[in-house]
Protein backbone atom coordinates (compact mmCIF):
# COMPACT_ATOMS: atom_id res chain seq x y z
CA UNK A 1 0.00 0.00 0.00
CA UNK A 2 1.27 3.42 -0.91
CA UNK A 3 -0.08 6.95 -0.56
CA UNK A 4 1.65 9.23 -3.02
CA UNK A 5 2.48 12.84 -2.28
CA UNK A 6 -0.47 13.92 -4.41
CA UNK A 7 -3.14 11.72 -2.85
CA UNK A 8 -3.16 8.51 -4.89
CA UNK A 9 -3.80 5.62 -2.51
CA UNK A 10 -2.52 2.48 -4.26
CA UNK A 11 -3.56 -0.81 -2.66
CA UNK A 12 -1.79 -3.77 -4.27
CA UNK A 13 -1.61 -6.25 -1.43
CA UNK A 14 -3.22 -9.67 -1.12
CA UNK A 15 -5.47 -9.96 1.89
CA UNK A 16 -6.61 -7.31 4.33
CA UNK A 17 -9.44 -4.82 4.41
CA UNK A 18 -10.32 -1.15 3.98
CA UNK A 19 -13.12 0.42 5.99
CA UNK A 20 -14.28 3.80 7.23
CA UNK A 21 -13.44 5.05 10.71
CA UNK A 22 -14.44 8.59 11.69
CA UNK A 23 -13.58 10.32 8.42
CA UNK A 24 -10.57 8.12 7.86
CA UNK A 25 -9.72 5.04 5.83
CA UNK A 26 -8.62 2.23 8.15
CA UNK A 27 -6.35 -0.13 6.24
CA UNK A 28 -5.69 -3.51 7.85
CA UNK A 29 -3.11 -5.79 6.24
CA UNK A 30 -0.76 -8.54 7.37
CA UNK A 31 1.91 -5.93 7.99
CA UNK A 32 -0.29 -3.92 10.35
CA UNK A 33 -2.88 -1.15 10.44
CA UNK A 34 -2.82 2.39 9.11
CA UNK A 35 -5.34 5.23 9.11
CA UNK A 36 -5.48 7.87 6.38
CA UNK A 37 -7.85 10.89 6.37
CA UNK A 38 -10.27 10.62 3.46
CA UNK A 39 -9.79 14.32 2.73
CA UNK A 40 -6.11 13.67 1.96
CA UNK A 41 -6.94 11.06 -0.71
CA UNK A 42 -7.74 11.94 -4.32
CA UNK A 43 -8.04 8.43 -5.80
CA UNK A 44 -8.10 4.92 -4.44
CA UNK A 45 -6.61 2.40 -6.86
CA UNK A 46 -7.10 -1.22 -5.81
CA UNK A 47 -4.87 -3.66 -7.70
CA UNK A 48 -4.72 -6.37 -5.06
CA UNK A 49 -7.32 -8.49 -3.30
CA UNK A 50 -8.82 -6.73 -0.29
CA UNK A 51 -12.26 -6.33 1.28
CA UNK A 52 -13.98 -2.91 1.28
CA UNK A 53 -16.99 -1.99 3.39
CA UNK A 54 -20.09 -0.23 1.99
CA UNK A 55 -19.63 2.52 4.59
CA UNK A 56 -16.28 3.32 3.03
CA UNK A 57 -17.65 3.18 -0.53
CA UNK A 58 -20.38 5.67 0.39
CA UNK A 59 -17.89 7.96 2.14
CA UNK A 60 -15.56 7.93 -0.88
CA UNK A 61 -18.40 8.72 -3.30
CA UNK A 62 -19.74 11.54 -1.12
CA UNK A 63 -16.24 12.99 -0.79
CA UNK A 64 -15.65 12.90 -4.54
CA UNK A 65 -12.88 10.33 -4.22
CA UNK A 66 -12.67 8.09 -7.27
CA UNK A 67 -12.29 4.33 -6.70
CA UNK A 68 -10.72 2.22 -9.42
CA UNK A 69 -10.51 -1.58 -9.38
CA UNK A 70 -7.72 -2.82 -11.65
CA UNK A 71 -5.78 -6.00 -12.34
CA UNK A 72 -2.22 -6.33 -10.96
CA UNK A 73 -0.97 -5.04 -14.33
CA UNK A 74 -3.14 -1.92 -14.05
CA UNK A 75 -5.87 -2.90 -16.54
CA UNK A 76 -9.06 -1.09 -15.43
CA UNK A 77 -11.88 -3.45 -14.42
CA UNK A 78 -14.41 -1.31 -12.57
CA UNK A 79 -14.89 2.21 -11.25
CA UNK A 80 -16.98 3.72 -8.48
CA UNK A 81 -18.06 7.33 -8.93
CA UNK A 82 -20.65 9.52 -7.25
CA UNK A 83 -24.17 9.05 -8.63
CA UNK A 84 -24.26 12.65 -9.87
CA UNK A 85 -20.91 12.47 -11.66
CA UNK A 86 -21.18 12.82 -15.43
CA UNK A 87 -24.72 14.13 -15.30
CA UNK A 88 -24.28 16.46 -18.29
CA UNK A 89 -26.56 14.87 -20.91
CA UNK A 90 -25.83 17.69 -23.41
CA UNK A 91 -22.25 16.45 -23.84
CA UNK A 92 -23.38 12.91 -24.67
CA UNK A 93 -25.97 14.27 -27.09
CA UNK A 94 -23.32 16.31 -28.94
CA UNK A 95 -21.03 13.26 -28.97
CA UNK A 96 -23.69 11.09 -30.61
CA UNK A 97 -24.60 13.79 -33.14
CA UNK A 98 -20.93 14.38 -34.01
CA UNK A 99 -20.65 10.86 -35.41
CA UNK A 100 -22.79 12.00 -38.34
CA UNK A 101 -21.22 15.38 -39.15
CA UNK A 102 -17.81 16.97 -39.65
CA UNK A 103 -17.02 17.20 -35.93
CA UNK A 104 -16.38 13.46 -35.68
CA UNK A 105 -13.88 13.61 -38.55
CA UNK A 106 -12.14 16.68 -37.09
CA UNK A 107 -11.73 14.99 -33.70
CA UNK A 108 -10.52 11.69 -35.20
CA UNK A 109 -7.97 13.51 -37.36
CA UNK A 110 -6.74 15.62 -34.46
CA UNK A 111 -6.15 12.45 -32.42
CA UNK A 112 -4.05 10.72 -35.09
CA UNK A 113 -2.19 13.90 -36.08
CA UNK A 114 -1.48 14.62 -32.41
CA UNK A 115 -0.15 11.12 -31.81
CA UNK A 116 2.16 11.24 -34.85
CA UNK A 117 3.38 14.68 -33.83
CA UNK A 118 4.41 13.34 -30.44
CA UNK A 119 6.00 10.23 -31.97
CA UNK A 120 8.07 12.50 -34.23
CA UNK A 121 9.00 14.55 -31.17
CA UNK A 122 10.31 11.39 -29.50
CA UNK A 123 12.42 10.66 -32.58
CA UNK A 124 13.96 14.13 -32.43
CA UNK A 125 14.52 13.72 -28.70
CA UNK A 126 16.44 10.47 -29.19
CA UNK A 127 18.28 11.92 -32.18
CA UNK A 128 19.60 14.64 -29.91
CA UNK A 129 20.34 12.18 -27.10
CA UNK A 130 22.32 9.97 -29.50
CA UNK A 131 24.33 12.76 -31.07
CA UNK A 132 27.59 11.03 -30.07
CA UNK A 133 26.62 8.21 -32.47
CA UNK A 134 26.30 10.23 -35.64
CA UNK A 135 24.79 7.49 -37.84
CA UNK A 136 22.13 6.51 -35.31
CA UNK A 137 21.33 10.14 -34.53
CA UNK A 138 20.79 10.72 -38.26
CA UNK A 139 18.49 7.70 -38.48
CA UNK A 140 16.30 9.09 -35.68
CA UNK A 141 16.28 12.51 -37.35
CA UNK A 142 15.28 11.09 -40.72
CA UNK A 143 12.53 9.01 -39.08
CA UNK A 144 11.20 12.19 -37.46
CA UNK A 145 11.17 13.97 -40.82
CA UNK A 146 9.27 11.09 -42.47
CA UNK A 147 6.72 11.12 -39.65
CA UNK A 148 6.36 14.88 -39.96
CA UNK A 149 5.65 14.51 -43.69
CA UNK A 150 2.98 11.85 -42.98
CA UNK A 151 1.45 14.05 -40.29
CA UNK A 152 1.30 17.15 -42.50
CA UNK A 153 -0.18 15.18 -45.41
CA UNK A 154 -2.91 13.76 -43.16
CA UNK A 155 -3.56 17.14 -41.58
CA UNK A 156 -4.14 18.61 -45.02
CA UNK A 157 -6.64 15.96 -46.13
CA UNK A 158 -10.28 16.90 -46.48
CA UNK A 159 -13.03 14.34 -45.95
CA UNK A 160 -16.71 14.77 -46.88
CA UNK A 161 -19.07 15.46 -44.00
CA UNK A 162 -20.62 12.31 -42.58
CA UNK A 163 -17.89 10.00 -43.95
CA UNK A 164 -16.26 9.08 -40.64
CA UNK A 165 -16.10 5.36 -41.44
CA UNK A 166 -14.24 5.96 -44.71
CA UNK A 167 -12.05 8.69 -43.23
CA UNK A 168 -11.14 6.38 -40.33
CA UNK A 169 -9.71 3.80 -42.77
CA UNK A 170 -7.43 6.39 -44.36
CA UNK A 171 -6.31 7.73 -40.97
CA UNK A 172 -5.57 4.28 -39.58
CA UNK A 173 -3.58 3.41 -42.68
CA UNK A 174 -1.35 6.44 -42.07
CA UNK A 175 -1.13 5.66 -38.36
CA UNK A 176 -0.10 2.06 -39.11
CA UNK A 177 2.73 3.13 -41.47
CA UNK A 178 4.06 5.57 -38.90
CA UNK A 179 3.78 2.99 -36.10
CA UNK A 180 5.89 0.49 -38.08
CA UNK A 181 8.63 3.09 -38.50
CA UNK A 182 8.32 4.35 -34.93
CA UNK A 183 8.67 0.96 -33.24
CA UNK A 184 11.47 -0.12 -35.58
CA UNK A 185 13.40 2.91 -34.31
CA UNK A 186 12.38 2.40 -30.68
CA UNK A 187 14.21 -0.94 -30.84
CA UNK A 188 17.43 1.06 -30.63
CA UNK A 189 16.29 2.47 -27.28
CA UNK A 190 14.59 -0.63 -25.86
CA UNK A 191 16.53 -3.48 -27.51
CA UNK A 192 19.04 -3.80 -24.67
CA UNK A 193 16.19 -5.16 -22.51
CA UNK A 194 15.01 -7.76 -25.07
CA UNK A 195 12.55 -5.62 -27.05
CA UNK A 196 12.11 -6.95 -30.59
CA UNK A 197 8.81 -5.31 -31.48
CA UNK A 198 5.59 -4.11 -29.96
CA UNK A 199 3.59 -6.88 -28.24
CA UNK A 200 0.23 -5.95 -26.77
CA UNK A 201 -0.66 -9.36 -25.32
CA UNK A 202 1.32 -12.15 -23.69
CA UNK A 203 4.42 -9.98 -23.66
CA UNK A 204 7.31 -11.28 -21.55
CA UNK A 205 10.14 -8.83 -22.24
CA UNK A 206 10.44 -5.95 -19.73
CA UNK A 207 9.83 -3.08 -22.21
CA UNK A 208 6.57 -4.49 -23.56
CA UNK A 209 5.35 -5.43 -20.08
CA UNK A 210 6.14 -1.91 -18.83
CA UNK A 211 4.45 -0.31 -21.83
CA UNK A 212 1.32 -2.41 -21.35
CA UNK A 213 1.11 -1.65 -17.62
CA UNK A 214 1.73 2.09 -18.12
CA UNK A 215 -0.84 2.29 -20.94
CA UNK A 216 -3.35 0.58 -18.65
CA UNK A 217 -2.71 3.16 -15.94
CA UNK A 218 -3.00 5.99 -18.47
CA UNK A 219 -6.35 4.62 -19.66
CA UNK A 220 -7.68 4.69 -16.09
CA UNK A 221 -6.77 8.39 -15.83
CA UNK A 222 -8.50 9.18 -19.13
CA UNK A 223 -11.54 7.06 -18.26
CA UNK A 224 -12.07 9.01 -15.03
CA UNK A 225 -12.28 12.31 -16.92
CA UNK A 226 -14.45 10.93 -19.72
CA UNK A 227 -16.99 9.95 -17.05
CA UNK A 228 -16.52 13.27 -15.26
CA UNK A 229 -17.55 15.20 -18.39
CA UNK A 230 -20.53 12.98 -19.07
CA UNK A 231 -19.21 11.48 -22.32
CA UNK A 232 -20.02 7.96 -23.49
CA UNK A 233 -16.76 6.00 -23.02
CA UNK A 234 -17.87 3.27 -25.43
CA UNK A 235 -18.37 5.51 -28.49
CA UNK A 236 -15.06 6.41 -30.11
CA UNK A 237 -14.01 8.26 -33.24
CA UNK A 238 -10.88 6.26 -34.11
CA UNK A 239 -11.58 2.98 -32.32
CA UNK A 240 -14.75 1.38 -33.66
CA UNK A 241 -17.53 0.37 -31.32
CA UNK A 242 -17.34 -3.12 -29.80
CA UNK A 243 -19.29 -4.49 -26.83
CA UNK A 244 -17.48 -3.55 -23.63
CA UNK A 245 -14.67 -1.68 -25.38
CA UNK A 246 -13.81 1.76 -23.96
CA UNK A 247 -13.36 3.14 -27.48
CA UNK A 248 -13.43 6.85 -26.58
CA UNK A 249 -10.98 6.28 -23.71
CA UNK A 250 -8.58 4.51 -26.09
CA UNK A 251 -9.04 7.36 -28.59
CA UNK A 252 -8.19 10.14 -26.19
CA UNK A 253 -5.12 8.41 -24.76
CA UNK A 254 -3.56 8.01 -28.24
CA UNK A 255 -1.78 11.39 -28.34
CA UNK A 256 -0.30 10.67 -24.90
CA UNK A 257 1.05 7.19 -25.65
CA UNK A 258 4.41 8.62 -26.89
CA UNK A 259 4.70 10.42 -23.54
CA UNK A 260 4.32 7.05 -21.83
CA UNK A 261 6.93 5.57 -24.17
CA UNK A 262 9.48 8.16 -23.13
CA UNK A 263 8.62 7.60 -19.46
CA UNK A 264 9.12 3.81 -19.83
CA UNK A 265 12.54 4.23 -21.45
CA UNK A 266 13.54 6.53 -18.59
CA UNK A 267 12.19 4.08 -16.01
CA UNK A 268 14.09 1.11 -17.47
CA UNK A 269 17.32 3.08 -17.62
CA UNK A 270 17.07 3.98 -13.95
CA UNK A 271 15.68 0.68 -12.63
CA UNK A 272 18.21 -0.93 -10.29
CA UNK A 273 16.71 -4.43 -10.19
CA UNK A 274 17.53 -7.45 -12.32
CA UNK A 275 16.04 -7.44 -15.85
CA UNK A 276 18.02 -10.08 -17.69
CA UNK A 277 15.64 -12.91 -16.82
CA UNK A 278 12.58 -10.96 -17.96
CA UNK A 279 10.15 -8.95 -15.92
CA UNK A 280 9.43 -9.44 -12.23
CA UNK A 281 6.68 -8.46 -9.80
CA UNK A 282 9.19 -6.10 -8.17
CA UNK A 283 9.71 -4.33 -11.49
CA UNK A 284 5.96 -3.90 -12.04
CA UNK A 285 5.50 -2.61 -8.47
CA UNK A 286 8.31 -0.10 -8.98
CA UNK A 287 6.85 0.98 -12.34
CA UNK A 288 3.41 1.60 -10.84
CA UNK A 289 4.93 3.66 -8.04
CA UNK A 290 7.00 5.72 -10.48
CA UNK A 291 4.01 6.17 -12.79
CA UNK A 292 2.04 7.96 -10.09
CA UNK A 293 4.99 9.80 -8.55
CA UNK A 294 6.79 10.79 -11.78
CA UNK A 295 4.65 10.49 -14.90
CA UNK A 296 1.36 11.64 -13.37
CA UNK A 297 3.11 14.61 -11.78
CA UNK A 298 5.27 15.52 -14.76
CA UNK A 299 4.55 18.98 -16.17
CA UNK A 300 3.67 19.71 -19.78
CA UNK A 301 2.74 22.98 -21.51
CA UNK A 302 -0.81 22.90 -22.84
CA UNK A 303 -2.65 25.90 -24.24
CA UNK A 304 -0.41 28.34 -22.38
CA UNK A 305 -0.55 26.52 -19.06
CA UNK A 306 2.16 24.52 -17.32
CA UNK A 307 0.12 21.53 -16.17
CA UNK A 308 0.72 18.32 -14.29
CA UNK A 309 -0.11 15.32 -16.48
CA UNK A 310 -3.25 14.56 -14.48
CA UNK A 311 -4.47 18.13 -14.94
CA UNK A 312 -3.50 18.06 -18.60
CA UNK A 313 -5.77 15.05 -19.17
CA UNK A 314 -8.63 16.88 -17.45
CA UNK A 315 -8.18 19.97 -19.65
CA UNK A 316 -7.74 17.86 -22.79
CA UNK A 317 -11.06 16.07 -22.26
CA UNK A 318 -12.62 19.47 -21.49
CA UNK A 319 -11.14 20.75 -24.77
CA UNK A 320 -12.78 17.85 -26.65
CA UNK A 321 -16.12 18.77 -25.08
CA UNK A 322 -15.64 22.42 -26.08
CA UNK A 323 -14.77 21.32 -29.61
CA UNK A 324 -17.95 19.25 -29.77
CA UNK A 325 -20.04 22.24 -28.77
CA UNK A 326 -18.23 24.73 -31.01
CA UNK A 327 -17.74 22.51 -34.07
CA UNK A 328 -13.95 22.76 -34.29
CA UNK A 329 -10.92 20.47 -33.96
CA UNK A 330 -9.57 20.16 -30.39
CA UNK A 331 -6.00 21.07 -29.52
CA UNK A 332 -4.04 17.91 -28.67
CA UNK A 333 -1.28 17.83 -26.03
CA UNK A 334 2.29 18.06 -27.34
CA UNK A 335 5.47 16.79 -25.74
CA UNK A 336 8.48 18.92 -26.76
CA UNK A 337 11.68 17.22 -27.77
How far from one another are the termini? Answer: 35 Å
DSSP strand tally: 11
Q: What overall form do the CA principal axes indicate?
A: globular
In order across it, which strands form the biggest sheet? 1-2-6-8-9
Helix content: 40-55%
Largest sheet: 5 strands, mixed
Helix/strand structural class? alpha/beta
What does this protein structure show overall?
The chain is an alpha/beta fold and 337 residues long. 51% of the residues lie in helices and 15% in strands. The protein has helices spanning 54-62, 89-98, 102-129, 134-155, 164-190, 206-228, 247-253, 257-270, 281-295, 309-326; strands at 2-3, 8-11, 14-21, 24-29, 32-37, 43-46, 49-52, 66-70, 76-80, 299-302, 305-308. The protein has a five-stranded mixed β-sheet with strand order 1-2-6-8-9, sandwiched between helices. Strands 5-4-3-7 form a four-stranded mixed β-sheet. The protein starts with a strand and ends in an 11-residue tail after the last helix.
Amino acid sequence: MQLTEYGHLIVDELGGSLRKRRGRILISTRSGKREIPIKSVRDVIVMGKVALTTDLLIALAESGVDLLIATPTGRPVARLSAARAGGTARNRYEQYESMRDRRGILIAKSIIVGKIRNQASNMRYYSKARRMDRDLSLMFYEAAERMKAEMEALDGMEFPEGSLDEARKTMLSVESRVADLYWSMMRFELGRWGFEGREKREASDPPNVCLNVAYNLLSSMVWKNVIRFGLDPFLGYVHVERPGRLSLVFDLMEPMRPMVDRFVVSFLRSYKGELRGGYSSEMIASLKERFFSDFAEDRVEYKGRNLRMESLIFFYVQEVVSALREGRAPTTPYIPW
